[in-house]
Amino acid sequence: MTTADLPTVPPDLDPAARDRFFLGLAVEQARIGWEEGGVPIGAALVDGDRVLAVGRNRRVQMSSAIRHGETDCIEQAGRLPASVYRRSTLYTTLSPCFMCAGTALLYDIPRIVIGENRAFQASEELLRSKGVQVDVLDDAECIALMERMLAERPELWLEDIGEES
């Protein structure tokens, strides 16, 4: 997806509706990843009203050790000035692992909006301790995606988080 293909936020949305809109982009990526045979986790990186990039977990598709939803999204954004990251928000369908949290911390991303943290939670305390605003939306679609993942592809999930089946 090129920058020209990325959607813009509809005008006149309140802050909660804006978060839902941007999280919806991450959910769309998660669904694509699932349909590709991968892990259904997606992300979107947003600067104000401008979507910088979207991404999804592509570990299976790319035979990658590190292409989680958040790291793929940041990779899709390409090289950006530090000032852009420092005012951006990262939307993710699932609470970030330590690798993805570390990437967000490296680039000083000040806010992360999480779709759900019931299926997995590792880094939220670390992120908050470093001054990152972490908001969990407890989104029904994100919860359903991970429930399906855990029911239908548990071995893939364990591989994704570095555990043995």
Give an overview in words:
This protein is an alpha/beta fold and 165 residues long. 44% of the residues lie in helices and 18% in strands. It has eight helices and five strands. It has helices at residues 15-35, 59-62, 69-77, 82-85, 98-106, 124-129, 140-152, 154-160, and strands at residues 42-47, 50-56, 89-94, 111-116, 133-136. It has a five-stranded mixed beta sheet. Helix 7 packs across helix 8 (154-160). The termini are far apart.
Topology (SSEs and partners):
Elements: H1 15-35, E1 42-47, E2 50-56, H2 59-62, H3 69-77, H4 82-85, E3 89-94, H5 98-106, E4 111-116, H6 124-129, E5 133-136, H7 140-152, H8 154-160
Helix pairs in contact: 1-7, 3-5, 7-8
Beginning-to-end CA distance, first to last residue? 34 Å
- Helix amount: 40-55%
Strand line-up across the major sheet = 2-1-3-4-5
Binned strand content:
15-25%
Largest sheet: 5 strands, mixed
Number of strand segments: 5
If helices are DSSP runs of H or I spanning 4 or more residues, what is the number of helices?
8
The shape is globular
| Structural class label | alpha/beta
Low-confidence stretches: none
> Topology as H/E string?
HEEHHHEHEHEHH
Rg, nearest Å: 15 Å
What is the typical, i.e. mean, pLDDT? Answer: 95
